[in-house]
Records
---
Amino acid sequence: MRTTDTIYINGSFVRPHGKEEAPLFNPATEEQIGTVRLGDEQDVDNAVSAAKAAFASQSQSSKAERIAMLHSLHDAVAARASDLADAMREEYGAPASFVGFSVLHAATAFLNMAKTLESYEFRRRIGHAEIEMRPAGVAAAITPWNSNYGFICNKLATAIAAGATMVIKPSEMSAIQTQLLTECLHAAGLPDGIFNIVNGYGHVVGAALSSHHDIAKISFTGSTVTGRAILQAAAATFKRVTLELGGKSPNIILDDADLDLVIPQVLAAGFANSGQACIAGTRILAPEGRLTEIHDHLAQAVATLKVGDASDPTVRIGPMVSRKQWDRVQSYIRLGQEEGARLIVGGEGRPKGVDRGWFVRPTIFSGVNNDMRIAREEIFGPVLCVIPYRDETHALEIANDTVYGLQAYVFSSDVDRAKRMADRIEAGRVVINGAPHEPAAPFGGFKQSGIGREFGAAGLESFLEPRAVLS
Ligand code: NAD
């Protein structure tokens, strides 16, 4: 049993003022593996004061100094990559492929932002105005459990590049991972107060940050429901907000696609991170003329996916993060059947031969229409819908008929044709034929998938305020 009983304020590990404790679990065994002592409003005040004091010098730091900080942070995180990977597997059960990507992505977030910073001009001229891009002020980051390291590192990298300081509230379910990451960030030796990390519940620590009068900017990743609450709380003091929220991404197979090539990628997008991914391609849009063929390919491919404890590197689908999440996914599998959809593969309960752990059978429904709740609501588990379409126009209608707009996938043997489709999809990112992540390109959602963008220059500018001096 591990006890996490410190938070990080002004360059030191300190005991929180808050006294409440929360249990931590290994989702593959359902066993409690630790406890975390949580912060409260007083801890938020202390952390914000430290960040505010540090802002005075950080906001005046040079580009070269910030780049050096980002490199130190990268080195410190990369140095403990294997410990970070172990903690992620144990506390969260992510499969090996995602753990590998996630830890690397977290460390390189600092290098990517350093590269953006090198070529970014903080001063420029427009007509007779001199423009200066100034740091927005003390920022707060509020992050979810489903990629704890990546979200913390990317948000912190962006704040540092902008000359801002930060208070970070990670998910209360990721405290073992957070503790390890905080040790790495501390080892980078940055001046005190530039970043502060307060564990705590959303309705306590998250809410206190969202309404704090000394916080100028909030960068949030999490559910649309929480994003709405943060936006409302932030409105009183007109905080700048970046919200990275949920999705129900279309995963469009065009009629010319080579299914042998495409189906594994369709499933990789749909079951990304055991289905616990905001960008998961959960609505598979299939041409009517090839529906039976697509069902067969999907069923065969899913049968080869190994579900189990992520300590086995061949496992493709790990457990759900919590009992609550397992129950929620089960309720959607039940709901799909009640709504009249047909199971191609999977169903309720644990996979055959598994008697403990929050494991779900990878599930695909056919006979789904886009009005069903399983096609409209974010399930956040390995549950996909196949929705048939008549022609490209119909596919686009279905793809865009959602309150979300985070990411979309198009598969075709003709890239130009796929690009023409991409032009008409309402989503912040469209991925053609499984193209890899581009860390300098903007990332974020249309519609209720969020406000603003992260990564690259677009991300950096979300932490900056332009000022024009006219002479
Ligand atoms: P969540 O919204 O429940 O929690 C996210 C964070 O917000 C946690 O730290 C939580 O403690 C905090 N929080 C909760 N209530 C709060 C409140 N009232 N005020 C302030 N903070 C509060 O989300 P989750 O379950 O941790 O993560 C899953 C969700 O995150 C999914 O909806 C997923 O789509 C979304 N997500 C989005 C992205 C993206 O980049 N768009 C990435 C990953 C996850």
---
Amino acid sequence: MILIDGKKAAAELRAELKEEVAELKSKHNKVPGLTVILIGDLTPSQIYVRNKEKSANEVGLKSEVIKYPDSVEEKTVLEKIQELNSDETVSGILVQLPLPKHIDKQKVIEAIDPSKDVDGFHPMNVGNLSSGYESSIPCTPLGCYLLIKKIEPNLSGKKAVVVGRSNLNGKPMTQLLLKENCTVTITHSKTKDLKAECLEADIIVAAVGIPELVRGDWIKKDAIVIDVGINKTDNGIVGDVHFDEVSKNAKALTPVPGGVGPMTIACLLKNTIDCFKRSQI
Ligand code: NAP
């Protein structure tokens, strides 16, 4: 079984991006800029944002974090986004989720200029992705897609099952696999027989949030299995896939941690650079 090393893949992607930033700098005499807005003091959000900033600096991006207290008014955040939208030195804007309850998440997402929407959550980017046009692609499914392509460059005609239909993961993942000419089944909490669906799959992407939901006897021999889940349990962090069981049947499997997670931030950097490149055309 191939253990898909997300840390290594992310380091390789960052190295490629670092070279690309250096080339862009010599061509345009400026570098792509990423601005992250962080509201409140939730520890996981602070850790994510710190890691994003560190990775952005590592590849040579201009990076900035704007922090607000939990009590910040929605209007203040929306005004800041407008300011960043018209700032030419800012290529990508990300508002770290979750937001405090009094701030409307959708309003914030829609305030970001779609051409600077590095999370790929703006309805314009969602629509472009589903129409097969160029768009920003949400970072986690983009990372999953790049990992799958490393194992199997030609996905045409493969049967893929995506477990979970969130806007963040399942839905964009489905679009990426469709674009590669996979036959895709998207499953969710009302799916009648998830095991039977998974048994048909050459590729399974699990993004559910239920520890070890996908079991060893759900896996067709030689399937590629990508585990997006990050679940805290008494035994530490586990994915949505039962690693020990599934590793016996799968051709390739991502571990948790060290699989999809590291690719997510690397893909955020990629999206920032892609936004910059599109703005220079
Ligand atoms: P989410 O928004 O809660 O969506 C979960 C999806 O799973 C929903 O579509 C839900 O179906 C479906 N589901 C729930 N129970 C199910 C069941 N028994 N069988 C089949 N489907 C079921 O979750 P998310 O934001 O996509 O996150 C999923 C997991 O990925 C979480 O563990 C999260 O921590 C992790 N995550 C990891 C990364 C990373 O970088 N690695 C990034 C983001 C998220 P319904 O639509 O019917 O409710």
---
Amino acid sequence: MDKKLSNVDVASLTILCYPDPRLRERSTAVEDPTDPAVAALAAKMFELMSAARGVGLAAPQVGVTVRLFVACPTGEPDDRHVYINPRIVSAEGWQTGEEGCLSFPGVCGKIKRNQVATIRATGLDGEEFEAVGEGLAARVFQHEIDHLDGRLLVDRLGSVARLAHRRELKALEERFARAGT
Ligand code: ZN
């Protein structure tokens, strides 16, 4: 069993907020996508994502630094998918739009992303599949894969947006500092 998954108490997982250092780690590949611990992690992540009204959630956001994210890229409840060891295989065109993140409550800003992104990933059944995302779905794919590399919303925001949200960012930093003491 995957070392990072065998020690996880799934029931106790919560969404971590900036600037938790676990959000900055580069996640490692899931060794066995068909391991029941992976399905249990994904189920809990769907629960947390829905409760927070998000459209995507990456494993490092719940403190498990493996390359997995869950998403409901069109917002339709029957469009939920688990993406294990995902990678972008092609991307084209550009879009600029408002983007937020469940690890940055109260912060959002305009971010430039590819308009179309094609990814390859493995499902819980161990089968590799390809998914083509356009518009919001492409944005979700790129945002979640950023998380797997430790790259965060704040890194993508322009200096104007960062300045506009300096109070919210400071409040998150202070809340994290208080929780750690
Ligand atoms: Zn995010």
---
Amino acid sequence: MNCEKINEELLEFLDKSPTCFHAIDYVKKKLEKQGYQQLLEGKTWNLEEGGKYYVTRNLSSIIAFQIPKKNFTGFMIGASHSDSPTFKIKDNPEIVSDGYVKLNVERYGGALFHTWFDRPLSVAGRIVYREGNKLISKLVNLDRDLLMIPSLAIHMNRKVNDESSLNAQTDMLPIIGSEECKGELMKEVSDGKEILGHDLFLYIRDKGSVWGAKQEYVSHGRLDDLQCGYGNMIGFLESTPKNSVPVFAIFDNEEVGSLTKQGANSTFLEDTLTRICFACGKDKEQEKTAVASSFMVSADNAHAVHPNHGEKADPVNRPQMNKGIVIKFNANQKYTTDAVAQGFFKDLCSSVNVPTQSFTNRSDMPGGSTLGNLSNSHVSLNTVDIGLAQLAMHSCYETAGTKDTEYLATAMQKFFSSSFIQEEEGTYLID
Ligand code: CO
């Protein structure tokens, strides 16, 4: 794997993924090019030995897998998320006032509001319409400089640099143009169709950048968590599984708690694993045995130590960009990593010369959460929480290390090719 090429492709992936729908669409096309066949949850699955498959839910989550053999020992699962903090356009979005048309939007996830001001924005998502007796979903992307959230001049807000508290309903509404353009947004989005429903989001128009004196850093929107999704995908596509089924999953809605039909806290993974077992001739007992000999990597970006705020990091565990994969720990199990998971994953990384580092929150700071423990409430198995170190998490333009995506891809290639078999109580055979 070539580091420069991986960063180029990562930026292309981010450019083409303004929303979770577009990210999943990009992944689908990439999988299809490599011979993966689409399965539908609403149709019967006939799986062949040696076959490669994928299934989506809501067009915003995806699970791909291959069947090296029907009497496989377990599942090697790599999961990440497709969504990022943004603003969702409400129903009846137009507000006309003082000669402007503004869009009524709602926050999606925990965006850093101030980063969204004074830069051209656009709109993408999906629309739903009827054709004959069919309800059809279509992805849309207006792909032009269309909106702006203007900041308030400093003359009208002298304290802005001292204290900042921004209100989602009053401060964050973008304008789309002058009064005369009323109705323009839906006209453009619908493309002549009568829209019955929509999930439309704002996104930034900035291009990605590789920068720094020695090209150390890569910046773009949505690195959390598409960087992990991308690294996992490359590892998955280059893996050579023998005894276990590699499962590459990207779930939507992590930024809003994962509790949706397509989120990590849904039945999507469980349903998929059960159906794989059934289609391979396993009974309920054999399915439980397979899950006990499985492992999950829950990959979601991690905080790098901040150059101007070192005091926010733990005194000892201080991840840096370009220093390898971050293993996340939390005594209260917001992160799933335990001694077995840490041992297995660290050993796996060092076997392919990928460095690892540790993250914990300061003991007096609660920190965030992710998808691993929620997924475990449906399919419970040994899991490690990891991520790639980044700055400015939940800014609309985030920064990560140029070496780290390759580290993740290399480790995940090894992971998806491996097996993790329960041999005795507390003892696992690594293959
Ligand atoms: Co995340």
